[in-house]
Amino acid sequence: MSLHPNFPTSPYAPLIPEQRWFPADEVLRDTAYEKLLPPLVAKVREEVFAWRAKGYAGASATSAALLRHWFEREHLIENADGSLSPFRYYFAQREAVETVIWLFEVRRARDKYDLLRFDASGAVSSGMFDEDWPRYVLKMATGAGKTKVLSLLIAWSFFHKLYETDSALSRNFLVIAPNIIVLDRLRADFDGLRIFFNDPILPSNGHEGRNWRDDFQLTLHIQDDVRVVRDTGNLFLTNIHRVFLGDVADPSLEDDDLRDYFLSPFGPKPAGKTTDSHTDLGEIVREVEELAVFNDEAHHIHDPKMAWFKSIQDIHHKMLQKDCRLALQVDVTATPRHNNGAIFVQTVSDYPLVEAIHQNLVKHPVLPDAASRAKL
């Protein structure tokens, strides 16, 4: 299961589909490559690679302008000391963003039947998809920069809805974390909308005829600390428990964050940076008429019977009652697998741990030598 000999060590270098890692010996590439990847990935990866080479043919003016700005221009970002450093997005981040844009806009693959066209395994059926709204799962190794991918896709959806006639996307966003620990990490990037201005996400006013920075009007709401909610331009950042409709369930050993369970006998739970609750966010997000959902660490959505999935489904059903629908769901995770080990069939992009280690985006595992093992 070694990497292709020509696989690049730079995380910025384009990754050629024929050189990507797969879990078998290289001699089996011609016969086993497509069968051993997540079912949709091989065909989607090849078509996105070709689309990129053709200069994003078929993309809207908004999408093409953003893609060129993000990935084909040189960027400088300001350091803490005021100096400037060059900045580039990793190719894995680029590929993930391009994949969502290509599927949604160019191929218009917005339901399970559209996605089935990319099945290379021959083993996927429509019954394996539980949602009836556009959902894409991005498999990205830990350390590959999933938050940057989320921020780019949020900006794309916002501007697409603003600038493109009859856009089916949204200028309202619900970003969900599985627990307070992940939520606090996300808040460090999104607080004050700093990621959109510190990273080269927003083109300068005048870029390809648009006033991008002036038009990017977004209000951040963290947990239930909700400010004035406009019809559009809202970014709701929360952990999943705030999206449940009604009372939050009693603490349980099944929770990802066990602090509430163990501390509940001692009185009110400790308040972290993101735990204060003043209003019912679950009610608010069900009242908006356009919404895109982004799930971080989305391996927690592994069962349609779970409250996480049911909450998103309920939001979609509430929107259908108003003749609207959930615009988009994007899940990012390093391990999009069910409890039985099966991959999420909605996985459309894959940057595996083996590739990330080779490109030094995560630490190399080091095994102790014989002398060290003898001391254990």
Label the structural class. alpha/beta
The average pLDDT is 86
- Order of SSEs, N→C? HHHEEHHEHEHHHEEHHEHEEHH
The proportion of strand residues reads 5-15%
The count of strands amounts to 9
For the sheet with most strands, the description reads: 7 strands, parallel
State the helix count. Answer: 14
Name a few traits of the molecule:
376 residues, alpha/beta, Rossmann fold, two-stranded antiparallel ribbon, 9 strands, globular
In short:
With 376 residues, the protein is α/β, with parallel strands linked by helices.
Describe the secondary structure blueprint for this structure:
Layout: H1 29-36, H2 41-53, H3 61-71, E1 75-78, E2 84-87, H4 91-106, H5 112-115, E3 135-140, H6 146-163, E4 172-177, H7 180-190, H8 194-198, H9 212-215, E5 219-222, E6 234-239, H10 259-263, H11 281-285, E7 292-296, H12 307-321, E8 328-333, E9 347-351, H13 353-358, H14 370-374
Parallel strand pairs: 3-8, 3-9, 4-6, 4-7, 5-6, 7-8
Antiparallel strand pairs: 1-2
Helix pairs in contact: 2-4, 4-6
Describe the structure.
With 376 residues, the protein is of the alpha/beta class. The chain has one domain (29-363): Rossmann fold. It has helices at residues 29-36, 41-53, 61-71, 91-106, 112-115, 146-163, 180-190, 194-198, 212-215, 259-263, 281-285, 307-321, 353-358, 370-374, and strands at 75-78, 84-87, 135-140, 172-177, 219-222, 234-239, 292-296, 328-333, 347-351. The strands form 2 sheets. The chain has a 7-stranded parallel β-sheet. It has a two-stranded antiparallel sheet with strand order 1-2. The two termini are 30 Å apart. The relative contact order is 0.16.
